[in-house]
From TrEMBL:
Pfam families: ABC_transp_aux (PF09822), DUF7088 (PF23357). Residues 179-482 form the ABC-type uncharacterised transport system domain. InterPro entries: ABC_transp_unknown, DUF7088. This is GldG family protein. Residues 512-592 form a coiled coil. The chain crosses the membrane at residues 12-32, 595-614. Residues 41-141 form the DUF7088 domain.
Length: 630
């Protein structure tokens, strides 16, 4: 073969390889469109299974309008990075929706039609920097029946719930019918006629708030069945429920119904049967009794949580100064579970004479605390608070256990029936009876009923004959969040908080902490030497005595001052060296990462390719040699 022929073959091979590369690229572009490989530790770029089911099961088109001001956010790189994260999530959802989810990305310029459209949806701009251009960063959605939902502002500090918020918006648009909530209440939560005052007493704001957004249907407390169209059952103060009603609740949960129950060791709003200021004859406690035992939950109605740290300052009697009441608690953000969407964004919830929930030993359920006391808490006998004239008496002998007591909890998992023999009074009768839940149950239990009452979270004002309620705590938000969460689909409930998109530089932070410790040690050393020198100077001056002694310095003082000045210069130099060494270590770390990413990884890939090519050629030569020998 001549040299010219070899060159021709080589050029032809290069052209063929180029054409092949272009063809494969085009093929991959069309065949593998939307395919992704998520190699992040927490699968940040992978949709949760529940989200995938929600978007893939859409039957009607849903339009999403993502508004983000690119120019206005130019001075906030962190916000722009988060906006990219939101956009990628929305694009991923649109790709998984089988064409039912239509995404529109809009950059609303000032005084433009896009800005007018954002305002029409109800989105408002925010100022990222002082005096800077307002920024739109929200999402609006519409469905085929003129339904609208919005997320007014994507907050980077709530990134863990980004997927849940978006999935919830899509679910609400695809399920326009309001969820039906059944309410069994042992307390006067709705508006009623008060015989004592002869006037209509208003209902509790927490229940009225639910009725504004959900179809809340009141059920009889002695009912024998829960209607099939009830998706969420809300049980308030289940005091002395009949076995038949308990059985109805039991079967409702086993069928897959969602339950939220408010129980209490001592409900301060239970005045049924009370006379002359005495408590009710049957007591004020309530519990689901055998149902809790079957579910693997412990709740003792004889114990109340007392908290020395979170107890509110109140006045029990008129004319007496306020004092701390350790059984009336103002729970703060540290009391909330940061990983549960129902309470993660809440700042304060107030409870009164609440009980404690816990998981039974050996129970197979997943017990997730939602609201807990501080560690400066202990359990108090409920009888001690029944006739309590002075809250200071609760402090007598109070000894914190160091344990955090759970006041509200979520229960997941398979649960068994509390009535293995069937309906009470009808054992052995024909009819459908479940002994175990088919799917994982989802139950929220709250060991306090007073959390629902107005005095613990709203102030009522009358303005020109109109009654207005102003919230000063998040009790109502907790109730609404919990019921909304349960009213969603099982797929939506399964979308839990994800790990944050922003990953801290743990190694850099560790270096800074180490340098900070060294700096603090040097500063202490400098302060101590300064104090020692001043004491020596004072002693020298005291030894000489006389008024003129203070006008000049002795040789000893001069020497001491000179020594101190040298020491101070030395220590300050060491401080600078420590700071400089910190920067040097961080720069070295950055250099190492750059070398790894820019040089080492490509080098390893190149070496791997060369190794594979050498191996391939050796195999070809060995094959040719074998063929020639044969």
């Amino acid at each position: 073969m001549t040299t010219k022929t070899r060159k021709t073959y080589g050029a032809t091979a290069l052209v063929a390889l180029a054409v092949l590369f272009i063809g494969v690229t085009i093929l991959i572009t069309f065949v593998l469109r939307g395919a992704r490989l998520d190699l992040t530790e927490s699968k940040l770029y992978s949709l949760a299974p529940g989200t995938q089911k929600i978007v893939s099961s859409l039957t009607e088109p849903v339009n999403l309008y993502f508004f983000f001001s690119q120019e206005g956010s130019s001075q906030s790189p962190q916000l722009r990075a988060y906006a990219q994260r939101v956009r990628e999530l929305l694009e991923e959802m649109a790709q998984r929706s089988k064409g039912k989810l239509h995404l529109n990305v809009i950059d609303p310029q000032p005084f433009s039609e896009d800005e007018d459209r954002a305002t029409e949806f109800g989105l408002s701009p925010v100022s990222v920097t002082p005096g800077g251009e307002p920024v739109y960063f929200g999402l609006a959605g519409t469905n085929s029946t003129d339904g609208r939902e919005i997320i007014g502002l994507f907050q980077p500090d709530k990134e863990e719930f980004l997927e849940y918020d978006v999935a919830s918006l899509i679910y609400r648009l695809s399920n326009a019918k309001r969820a039906t909530v059944g309410l069994i209440a042992g307390l006067p939560v709705d508006a009623r006629f008060d015989q004592m005052s002869g006037q209509m007493a208003p209902g509790w704001a927490s229940i009225q708030q639910l009725r504004e957004t959900l179809d809340v249907r009141t059920l009889q407390a002695d009912g024998n069945d829960i209607p099939a169209d009830i998706g969420v059952l809300m049980v308030v103060h289940p005091k002395e429920l009949s076995p038949q009603t308990q059985y109805a609740i039991d079967q409702f949960v086993l069928r897959g119904g969602k339950l939220i129950s408010f129980m209490d060791p001592q409900s301060e709003n239970d005045n049924a049967g009370a006379q002359m200021g005495m408590p009710p004859m049957g007591g004020r406690s309530s519990t689901l009794g055998p149902l809790l035992d079957a579910w693997g939950v412990k709740f003792d109605t004889n114990q109340i949580v007392g908290d020395r740290e979170l107890g509110l300052t109140v006045s029990l009697q008129q004319g007496k100064p306020p004092s701390q009441h350790i059984a009336i608690l103002g729970l703060n953000r540290a009391s909330m579970n940061p990983k549960d969407v129902t309470v993660s964004a809440l700042d304060s919830i107030n409870v009164m004479t609440a009980g404690a929930l816990s998981k039974k030993e050996g129970a197979t359920i997943e017990f997730e605390p939602l609201i807990q006391s501080s560690t400066n808490a202990a359990l108090l006998p409920a009888a001690k608070l029944m006739f309590l004239p002075d809250s200071d008496a609760l402090l007598d002998g109070f000894k914190p256990t160091g344990e955090r007591y759970t006041i509200a909890a979520r229960i997941h998992g398979k649960v068994k029936s509390a009535f293995p023999n069937g309906k009470p009074g009808a054992e052995g009768a024909a009819g459908a009876h479940l002994t175990e839940s088919k799917e994982d149950a989802n139950i929220i239990l709250v060991a306090d009923t007073d959390i629902l009452s107005d005095p613990l979270w709203v102030r009522t004002q009358n303005v020109f004959g109109q009654r207005f309620s102003v919230a000063w705590a998040n009790n109502g938000d907790f109730i609404s969040n919990s019921v909304d969460n349960l009213a969603g689909s099982a797929d939506l409930i399964s979308v839990r908080g994800r790990q944050s998109f922003f990953r801290p530089f743990t190694k850099v932070d560790e270096l800074r902490r180490q340098a900070g410790d060294q700096l603090r040690a040097k500063e202490k050393e400098l302060d101590q030497e300064l104090k020692d020198t001043e004491q020596k100077l004072t002693a020298l001056e005291g030894g000489r005595g006389g008024h003129q002694a203070s006008l000049s310095l002795s040789p000893e003082q001069e020497a001491e001052l000179e020594r101190f000045q040298h020491e101070r210069v030395r220590i300050r130099k060491e401080l600078r060296e420590t700071r400089r060494s910190l920067d040097v270590e961080i720069e070295k770390l950055g250099t190492r990462l750059k070398v790894i990413n820019i040089a080492l990884v490509p080098l390893l890939l190149a070496l791997g390719a060369i190794f594979l090519e050498i191996t391939r050629r050796r195999r070809l030569r060995a094959g040719r040699a074998a063929a020639h020998t044969g």
